Amino acid sequence: MPTVLELCAGAGGQAIGFEAAGFEHAALVDNDPHSCATLRTNRPYWNVIEADIGRFDAGYWRSVDVVAAGLPCPPFSVAGKQLGADDERDLFPAFLDIVETVEPRALLVENVQGLMADKFSLYRANIQSRLEAMGYDVYWNILDAYQYGASQHRRRAFLVALDGDFVWPKPKNVGPTVGRTLYNLMAEGGWTGVDKWACQANEPAPTLVGGSRKHGGPDLGPTRARAAWAKLGVDGLGVANEAPQPNFDGMPRLTDRMLAKLQSFPENWKFAGAKTHRCRQIGNALTVNLSVVLGKALAKCLS
Q1: What is the CATH number of the domain that holds 115?
Q2: Residue 62 φ/ψ, nearest 5 degrees
Q3: Which of 53, 112, 253, 259 could form a Cys-Cys staple with 240, CB 3.0–4.6 A?
Q4: Active-site option among 73, 199, 279, 301
């Protein structure tokens, strides 16, 4: 069974996918106590380490097959200042140091698609040059989770590196509509208007957002995102504590369980912390459906 060391593991979206793809987790590292609590609650047998990867000694894990990471997005996000290497939250250098120490057979990094912008071409070239000097062949791509079965458009940049050829997984099927995915959760309070709402919510969701510790909270994003949600009959100004009740009138808000379903988390996956902490974890996660196919693609190469 191939092993994986996961960095910036968050709430487990990538970890669930790698688990389903047949990987064994050597360790999962994150500096957020709420994310670590989420991982430990759902998988008590996982080796979860609360630590900053910028000060993490990875020497113990030299034998792992894969190092995977969902590195912080703010340095490259169009919603931020796109400072790249000048952003204190840029953890690519720390990640590359760990790869150099561990010498895994393969690595995977997920980030926002802003990383692939022209302004970061030199930044990507420097990453690629360093990895090639370690003996890796480097592959970049942008994948949309909707094309792999999720109910939202979620385009993310991916970096894969290994010694040899890598074939990106081909899209198999687009995800169902928001109305179809969330129908049962939206109806569990007995809302009489759920059928009409589901007919309106007949498109995939826009990208869920999570934010950082400084920014982002229990809502569905800035003005443009909220307008897209409104077309689906969803009030994006906040996140509800429960599903609409029988006589509810107006646009419902989503609950955190609904947000997690759009990220294709299992319905029994529990998120630790207050509502803001839960929503950040969910919005920042790698969509489970996509992480499964990426994990299987890597496992095929390693076999």
Answers
A1: 3.40.50.150
A2: -65, -20
A3: 253
A4: 73
How many C-beta atoms lie closer than 10 Å to residue 196's C-beta? 12
pLDDT exceeds 70 at position 264: yes
Q: In this predicted model, what pLDDT tens digit does every residue of 120-163 receive, in sequence order?
A: 888 899 999 999 999 999 999 999 999 999 999 999 999 999 99
Closest CA to 258 of 148, 183, 146: 183
Q: Say whether both 144 and 223 belong to one domain.
A: no
Distance CA 110, CA 200 (A): 32
- Exposed e or buried b for every residue in 241-260, given b needs 16+ CB within 10 A? eebbeeebeebbbbbbbbbb
> Can you tell me the mean pLDDT for 222-242?
93
Residues contacting residue 215 through CB under 8 Å, at least 6 positions apart: none
Q: Could you tell me the two tokens for 291?
A: 């992480």
Say whether both 101 and 235 belong to one domain: no
Give tens-digit pLDDT for 16-25. 999 999 999 9
Do residues 135 and 239 both lie within one domain?
no
In this structure, the answer to whether residues 194 and 255 fall within a common structural domain is yes
pLDDT value at residue 270: 98
Q: Structural domain tally of the chain?
A: 2
Catalogue the long-range contacts made by 236-241 (C-beta closer than 8 Å, 24 or more residues apart): 239/275, 239/279, 241/275
Domain that holds residue 52: 3-173+286-302
CB 66 within 8 A of CB 294: no
Residue 255 vs residues 99, 133, 155, 262: alpha-carbon distances, Å: 38, 47, 23, 11
Rounded Cα gap, residues 15 and 9, in angstroms: 7
What is the distance between the alpha carbons of residues 193 and 80, in angstroms, rounded to a whole number? Answer: 38
C-beta neighbour count of 214 within 10 angstroms: 7
163 and 297 fall within a common domain? yes
Helices and strands: H and E segment counts in the chain: 10, 7
Nearest to 24 by CA among 4, 49, 52: 4
Mark whether 207 and 130 lie in a shared domain. no
Answer yes or no: 36 catalytic: no
